[in-house]
Amino acid sequence: MSAISHHTVPSFRSRIGRDARSGYPAVPHRYRLHLALSCPRCLRIAVTHGLLGLEDVLPVTLLPAVPDAPDGGHLALRALYEASSHQYPGPAEAPVLSDGWTGRIVSTHAPDILQDLSRHFSASGPRLYPDGADERIEAVARLCEQGINAAAQRAGRSGIDGSARDAALTALLGTLDALELRLTSAEYVLGGELTAADVQLWVTLVQLDTVHRWHLDAAAVYRITDHPQLWSYARRLGAHPAFASRLDLDGIARRHHAQCRGEEAAGAAVRIVDWPGS
Questions:
Q1: What is the pLDDT of residues 194-224, one digit of tens each?
Q2: Which of 32, 41, 93 shows the shortest CA–CA distance to 66?
Q3: Which of 74, 86, 120, 237 has the lowest CB atom count within 10 Å?
Q4: Nearest Cα residue to 172 out of 195, 201, 143
């Protein structure tokens, strides 16, 4: 019997620090972001980059909406990955924060990149990670991933039995109900100020309407739309230049249809929000 070889894909999770002792101090023009706006992780970073006004401090290279390498990665990132890890075995995926001084990758971990941009680069913009808010921001992130993204994926999965679909839809609607209640008495998801939690939630709502909706039936989509405060909030944020200018609806659609093997459902025809550029 031949031995089975399991490649361990290296993790790139270095951090930007305030001074040279960190190894990656927050030096203007040293770093570059490589983003595909069709990817939700990249879209969160791009919106954050715009909110913080980092255009003249940390440049961005935009990648094709649909990854163009056979393994699902980006051909333009392969050299960076190889320089950072010899014979890197996995796909060269975005997002990437690269170091122009060494020609290597600093990080591919979106949560770390988001925090480091917000905390260690001096620029105008909101305090997206206010003091003492980390746990609440992380709680919203979990709510978005589990209560919206994962629940919507289960509810729209081909071949799932009716009881499992109903349970997933109930979980999704319960999450939306909780957010609706929260936004009835507050301008933003954590209160009166825009934070990283709002960027996370907005990108999640974009995905719900532009990706997950394609696999839900019309009745489910109508129940999702019945959250007027939540979708008004999504429209309001979408009108902000930092959000609107990064939203690539055509790219999201092309990426989804290139990668998705699920069946289209009746809800595909029922758009929830007229997003900027639609």
A1: 999 999 999 999 999 999 999 999 899 999 9
A2: 93
A3: 86
A4: 143
